[in-house]
From TrEMBL:
It comes from Fusarium duplospermum. The keyword Transmembrane applies. This is Uncharacterized protein. It is a multi-pass membrane protein. One of its GO terms (cellular component) is membrane. InterPro entries: Oligpept_transpt (IPR004648), OPT (IPR004813). Belongs to the oligopeptide OPT transporter family. Keywords: Membrane, Peptide transport, Protein transport, Transmembrane, Transmembrane helix, Transport.
Length: 214
């Protein structure tokens, strides 16, 4: 099941990432799916997310580099072979580094405290999310306390449809063919998270590049 979902998501979101350079964070979606497929099993949720989200992220990176190689007129077969060799060597090196770091920094990684170099916060967050999503039927289903987490996913999937319909109805328009609503809505979400004053500068530079430089 994880392999099938990985292939389906890679076709659609991988194409968008290769064309626009923009990739969604699909980790919550895979965790939600695992939560409903394996309720009450956080370890299964963690493994399912690892085999889908992590593999999908690696696929995105391979697609990005393959596109750059094609733009530079490099042979696709040679590029792909080099990518596979790099992935194998990188996996072996990362495994050795993981064993070394865990063996030597285990007390710090397990504790709530951290140093200026080592922290286990990201792994602890991954574990916490696996536990939370493993009770998704009781926590995130319609009618549950956090139902809007699940509802927001469906709203997000439906939100680009009106813009797509307008593009199909008015293909010669100068607005709808170039309005990627999914990317616009994604970055609008930055406006309500923490300190976001820097986002304004990004919007200004983006508008300047799109409407003036192009």
């Amino acid at each position: 099941m994880a392999t099938i979902l990985l292939g389906v998501f890679l076709i659609f979101f991988g194409a968008q990432y290769a064309i626009t350079g923009f990739g969604f964070n699909l980790q919550p979606i895979f965790q939600m799916l695992a939560g409903y497929m394996f309720p009450g099993r956080p370890l299964a949720n963690m493994y399912f997310t690892s085999y889908t989200y992590n593999a999908l992220t690696q696929g995105f990176l391979l697609l990005r580099d393959l596109k750059l190689a094609q733009q530079d007129k490099l042979a696709p077969k040679a590029t792909f072979t080099t990518q596979v060799i790099g992935c194998i060597l990188g996996a072996l090196l990362n495994y050795v580094m993981m064993i070394s770091i865990v063996d030597n920094q285990s007390p710090i990684l397990k504790s709530a405290e951290r140093t200026n170099i080592w922290s286990g916060a990201q792994i602890q967050q991954f574990n916490t999310l696996a536990i939370a999503w493993s009770i998704a039927p009781k926590m995130f289903s319609i009618g549950a306390r956090d139902q809007w987490v699940t509802i927001a996913f469906f709203i997000g999937f439906l939100a680009p449809l009106p813009f797509y319909i307008m593009h199909r109805l008015f293909p010669k328009s100068k607005i709808w063919p170039y309005l990627n609503s999914s990317i616009v809505l994604w970055y609008l979400g930055y406006l309500f998270v923490g300190l976001n004053a820097s986002v304004t500068g990004c919007y200004i530079l983006g508008a300047f590049g799109q409407f003036y430089l192009r």
